[in-house]
Amino acid sequence: MKKLFYLLLILAAAGQVQAQKTFDLDDIFKKGTFRTKSLPGFAYMNDGKSYIINKGNALEINNVIDGKNIGTYINEDQLTTMTNNKENGIEEYQFNSDESKVMIYTNSEGIYRHSSKGSTFVFDKKGNSGVAIFEGKPISNPTFSPDGNKVGFTFENNLYYTDLSTNKSTQITSDGKWNNIINGMCDWVYEEEFSFTRAFQWSEDSKKIAFLRFDESNVKEFTLEYYKDEMYPEPYSFKYPKVGEENSTLEVKIYSLDNNKTVSIDQKVDKEIYYPRIKWTKDVNTLCVFKMNRHQNKLELLLADASTGKTSPLMKEENKYYIEINDNLTFLKDGKHFLWVSDKGGFNQAFLYDMKGNMVNAITQPTADLADIYGYDEKNKMLYYQLISPTPMQREVYKVGLDGKKPVLLSTKTGTNSAQFSPTFEYATMMYSNINTPMSYALYNSKNALVRTLEDNNAAIEKFKDYKAGKAEFFKFNTSENVSLNGWWIKPTDFDPNKKYPVFMFLYGGPGSQQVLDKWGGGQAWWFKMISERGYIIACVDNRGTGGRGEEFRKMTYLQLGHYETIDQIEAAKYLGSLPYVDKTRIGIFGWSYGGYMSSLCLFKGNDVFKSAISVAPVTNWKWYDSIYTERYMRTEKENPEGYKNNSPVYFADRLKGNLFLAHGMADDNVHFQNSAELNKMLIRAGKSFDFHMYPNSNHGIYSENATPQLYNQMTNFIFEKI
User: In this structure, is residue 90 part of a structural domain?
Assistant: First the structure.
């Protein structure tokens, strides 16, 4: 009987395996087979007991406790009446301070990679009516004043505000001009590398607007070409400062609504200086200005008098490598203290300072990197934050008092935990995933007790069981230099340790980045699973220079981008090749952007280890990339010629022995097509054979005009043929 029982179990298991489906690129990129659910447009309301969900054509109000609909802030008919266009859905929305009005942003079009312009409307809930801001013309960065009665915005490089009581718009600046002067909005390189687009800030009394003025008249232009079935390609030129070239010169200005006058802060206009942030203090007449040198290793916080523009120092910080800018500066309501985040102690930490620039104490843990700050509860004096812990691959959510003593762990699961807190901090939406489990959303109260599950994606999890796909597992190994590196791999579901498998490696590898995370991966992860089921081991390793392991590990690639990273990836390939079930003659590597830079450099420098590489949108010489990013890590080519020469793929093209797949969007405004064209030239000069794929009208993401599925189809074929 026992034998029969076990035989039936085996047959049942075999039947289950046979019942599992295979999948292809269409499932991943076209059919949406593996999509999971999120909470679109979720935002808590002021009372902390209700929240908004963006339904695309309406904003629904739901009860926090039971999730039941308790009303609609704006419905489809009201939206259509206000916008006079049934096709205009709600792309973004923003409430004023007392939630009596909501701003709707719609019909947007991109400017650069992160900025856009679009039609903006304000709906007044009490009056059940809406108005178009600036007659519905495409504006950028619309932002309510703190009193909720005005909207600041930018239009054609000038700064404006609209008084909602009269719907009258006032033009604050008039010298704005394309590719020349920008007021209240970032130029290309600030947007890309300092990660913000809106370069103006309202004072808390709504009577002043501080803004940045960019003079990019001396910045050199770069021209892209778009192909639109016309007689000639359509040129598009924009200002893009490359390494060592002139940047925009900036001024910090403060406009008073009371007297229509603008003052400039008393800092000398200097093209070698950056102003990566401005932020008002709790004193409505005092602005805090971030001032940084071009090497980005010295940062000053200045306090500027809004009436006179006179500045005084608040705090200084220096670093032997570089300082990374973040948004985690919080001025406390007592007017005497502020919160600041720095890695000066070896790990990213939050610190408490007084308004004389003296550090009071550290707040967060000293031996783990702070990943994010979710908010400070002024009433209960508690800071809520995300920590990279207990390993570099995972994230936990904590709260702690300003004395930094006895931090309380709020998250309960091992993986990646994040949170969104209500304005009153009475409730929190806890978000969780791990490398094999899609995102779940759950509501917790202030006692950290589960109230209810908002979305668990169980339907998707059950659906995924129908498909034959391996699970990711973590591993680690020590290099020949005794450096411990973390990785993950995916093996075929029918993996046999007695067979030999080819390996397909994936990487990014750039400063502070992480790919080896205990976090759900989405669409690309399913592509890796598809490749794996065709008989490949997929592997990813985070090299030196990546994040989550403190300052020294993250910044050790300073002045030598590509050097240690390449060594580590080659060592990772050798480690994998040493495993008894790996065919060391069939190891390939793939990366995009910085990862494309790395994959090509690995193929050239590791030509005895890697058989093939896929390099998408790569930097191939750092002198062709932008000033702020590259100089932060490499300084200029004039200052660091060996660092550039020894780590640029174009100078190693003659070492190509294996198979190279090179792809680039021809309208890439970030990593210019020039990079791949120059590498193409050097490979031809060296007499090398390779695959080169160009994508007209596609930017860095390569997704326009059906480009994404076509690219992945080509890459898939290359993997099966060349690895």
Answer: yes
Q: Which tokens sit at 6?
A: 């076990």
420 forms beta bridges with 429
For residues 218 and 123, state if they share a domain: no
| Tally of CB atoms within 10 A around 683 | 22
* 77 belongs to a structural domain: yes
Q: Phi/psi of residue 304, each to 5°? A: -110, 130
Cα dihedral 222/557/328/365 (nearest 10): 170
Q: State how far the Cα of 588 lies from the Cα of 272, in Å rounded to an integer.
A: 42
Q: Which of 85, 120, 142 is the last residue of a domain?
A: 142
| Residue given tokens 């800071």 in the structure block | 383
Q: Copy the structure tokens of residue 5.
A: 């029982």
Please report, for the domain that includes residue 637, its CATH number: 3.40.50.1820
Q: What is the pLDDT of residues 379-438, one digit of tens each?
A: 999 999 999 999 999 999 999 999 999 999 999 999 999 999 999 999 999 999 999 999
Residues 641/690, Cβ–Cβ less than 8 Å: no
Q: Beta strands 129-132 and 140-144: pairing type? A: unpaired
What share of the chain has pLDDT > 90, as a percent? 95
Domain shared by 566 and 637, yes or no: yes
- Residues near 41 by beta carbon (within 8 Å), at least 6 away in sequence: 52, 53, 54, 55, 59, 90, 93
pLDDT at position 19 is: 67
Q: Are residues 78 and 198 in the same domain?
A: no
Question: What 3-state class would DSSP assign to 415?
Answer: coil
Based on the structure, what is the number of domains in the chain? Answer: 3
Q: How many C-beta neighbours within 10 Å does residue 705 have?
A: 12
Q: What is the DSSP string of 179-230?
A: TTEEESB--HHHHHHS---B-EEE-TTSSEEEEEEEE-TTSPEEEEEE--SS
Q: Report the distance separating Cα 394 and Cα 432, nearest Å.
A: 11
Phi, psi of 607 (to 5 degrees): -70, -10
Listed in order, strand segments (DSSP E) in 4-113 are 43-44, 50-54, 59-63, 69-74, 92-95, 101-110
Tell me, yes or no, whether 178 lies in a domain: yes
Q: Which two tokens stand for residue 511?
A: 């400063």
How far, in Å, CA of 564 to CA of 605, rounded?
12
Rg (CA), the chain: 27
Instruction: Give me the helices (H) in 338-483, please.
Output: 458-464
Structural domain for 608, as ranges: 468-656
pTM, 2 dp:
0.95
CA atoms of 54 and 306, how far apart (whole Å) = 38
Alpha-carbon span 541 to 555, nearest angstrom: 17
The tokens describing 168, both together, are 């009258």
- Residue 598, number of CB atoms within 10 A of its CB: 30
* Residue whose C-alpha is closest to residue 371's, from 337, 404, 397: 397
How far apart CA 169 and CA 584 sit, in angstroms, is 67
How far is 587 from 585, CA to CA, in rounded Å? 6
Write the CATH number for 303: 2.140.10.30
Cβ–Cβ under 8 Å, residues 589 and 571: no
CA distances from 11 to 16, 21, 610 (A): 9, 18, 41
Give the tokens for residue 705: 């005009």
Alpha-carbon dihedral 409, 411, 416, 421, rounded to 10 degrees: -100
Q: Is the pLDDT of residue 6 over 50?
A: no
